Amino acid sequence: MLECLCTIILKTDPMNRKHFIVTTVLILLVFACSRDLPGTHKPEAFEGFRQPGNFPAPAYHFETNPVTKEGFELGRKLFYETRLSRNNTISCGSCHIQSSAFTQHGHDVSHGIDDRLGSRNTPPVMNLAWSPLFMWDGGIFDLDLQPVAPITTHEEMDETVANVVAKLQQAPEYRTLFQKAFGNDQISTGNLMKALSQFMLLCVSSRSKYDSVMRREGTAAFTSEEAAGYTLVVQKCGGCHKEPLFTDGSFRNNGLDTGTNKDPGRYAVTLRPEDRYKFKVPSLRNLAYTAPYMHDGRFYTLDAVLDHYTKGVQAAPGLDPLLTGNGAPGIPLTAGERDQVRAFLSTLNDRAFITDRLLAEQ
Question: Is the pLDDT of residue 228 over 90?
């Protein structure tokens, strides 16, 4: 019928024909623009876990817990759920804040329930699919088990997993979400942990300038200062901070003094004397958002970190051999080289990661 009407109009008066054409163009413009208005466009398809082109194969066992849209969305809701804590006041997201690359920015050590203080700096939830061990001391060997530690630790959430499951079981919305994600509305510890893993597995930071350069995307290129810094980092820091993750996942003694809490590091897990004061090598990614630094958050600036490595490393038993190869402990850097290193480190900051709405509380 519309086609017949158009034919009639176009065959009649020229003024009608002109009016019809103008009206049609306006309608088409309004329709085209409406697709970009908030709430009017179709959401992007859920892509699940995708390995970045410049990253190695992940370490996580996806065959036992494939990431689905329903599982991820449940995990995201749980990550920001305060019922995981004893008094329902804090969530995982309270200490792992997205704008700080999922760290607790500004706190030297973690602040948990009732503002209790932990003994270590909050590590980022970032690129965990490539990590075989978790926590500063590597005391947890499976991402599916990792949430048990913060939930049950006195200084963090101070709750029991059984109580968390009971609280969630009483919430009809969670019974529905678990049914959609796992085909069963009877909430279990295993599925609770798997859902949290599915969210954390998608916390992938791989969209920094460095990544664009490595993947040869468009015209992305280092400046001369960044390129010089890249060479320095690979030569002087790459033994521990291996690209592209900028950590090798190992545990090392980097010459810090023991600090006020005398944290023994990995020794607390292995009880091997050679592991005393060894801590997991952190990634150099997103340093602009994750201060303070080191396992106890003792350094508040990158300059303080560079000061440590150039002139503060202590020659103690167990010091990593990579810090003793220059005749004196540490890594020699001139003032100019420090500037170049900082310039390169800035290329590892991933603003897309810390602003990704997919990872934010909904």
Answer: yes
